[in-house]
Amino acid sequence: MSQKPSRWIIQVVMVLALIAFVGFSLFPLLSNIFKDNQVRSETAPAPAGPTPAPAPSQPTKQSDLEAQARGYELVLQREPDNQTALQGLLRTRLELRDIKGTIPSLEKLAKLNPDEPRYGVLLAQAKQYLGDVEGAAQIYRAILTSKPGTLEALQGLVNLLLAQNRPEAAIGLLQDTLKTAAGANQVQLGSVDVPSVQLLLGDVYAQQKRFDEATAIYDQLIKSKPDDFRPVLGKALLLKTQGKDADAKSLFSKAVTLAPATYKDKIQQLASPNPAPAPASPTGSDKPN
After folding, report:
1. Which of 91, 140, 157, 251 is the most exposed place for a label (fewest CB within 10 A)?
2. In tens digits, what is the pLDDT along the chain, a chain of 289 residues?
3. Cβ–Cβ < 8 Å for 277, 8
4. Smallest Cα–Cα separation from 219: which of 245, 174, 258, 251?
């Protein structure tokens, strides 16, 4: 799941936009483990020799987690639809960094909760991490067929398309979502978060260096949602990418003023000459209205 250098723009803005996932506690855990595993595989040196086994008298955390996993599996042998046990097993597999082992629990939870798309999104993320890109894409598309405004699935599918060097397909997906948003929101009020979809489209335009189209989206959102820091930040990042630091500076300041306290420090870091890498998942709970 390699990313081009300019992807940090999309990551940062979408980290701030995807607040809908906060409260679904498995998502940050899963995302952080994905990131941690990827960093380890890229940076860890090869071991010099076999890792010494821990002393039997001092059980390791891993052995405790493995025991917990066996306990959950025993419960599920008797009660295969026990969601508390499924969630417990999922958490334990995640803490063990056993991404492949999360698949059965996620598949079962997604099946048991057809109206809760987040389990499907987590399943798609796990499949994508394991290299099953087509499987991940199928899950994202299935979610969007039944719930077209599921922002997490939209972002996941857009990222897949961009990773496959298919930016026009990603743009078309978002444009089609916006075209049908009014009808979808008449059927179910608020089912498509139009400003967040527009933000994602603006970010894709920015990555493709279609700066005029990205700017038009950010300007429209700044005008229609003057209290929302996200388009202000998006435009500031866009200007900075183009080397227009003086113009970006005032927008970064405005974004800091508008943003919830959770994000002020991160925005100030982004405004600096060498911003820190974007986090993998949201950690706050405030969502702009």
Report:
1. 91
2. 444 434 434 443 333 333 233 223 334 444 444 444 444 444 444 444 444 444 444 467 889 999 999 999 999 999 999 999 999 999 899 888 898 999 999 999 999 999 889 899 989 988 988 999 999 999 999 999 988 889 989 999 999 999 999 999 999 999 999 999 999 888 888 889 999 999 999 999 999 999 999 999 999 999 999 999 999 999 999 999 999 999 999 999 999 999 999 889 989 998 987 654 444 333 333 444 4
3. yes
4. 251
This prediction has a pTM of: 0.72
Q: Under a CB-based contact definition with an 8 Å cutoff, are residues 95 and 62 in contact?
A: no
Q: CA nearest 233: which of 260, 212, 193?
A: 260
Q: Kindly give, in sequence order, each residue whose CB lies less than 8 Å from that of residue 56, ignoring residues fewer than 6 positions away.
A: none
User: What span, in angstroms and rounded, lies between the C-alpha atoms of 25 and 285?
Assistant: 12
Q: 288 near 226, Cβ under 8 Å? A: no
Query: Residue 3 has which token pair?
Result: 């990313």
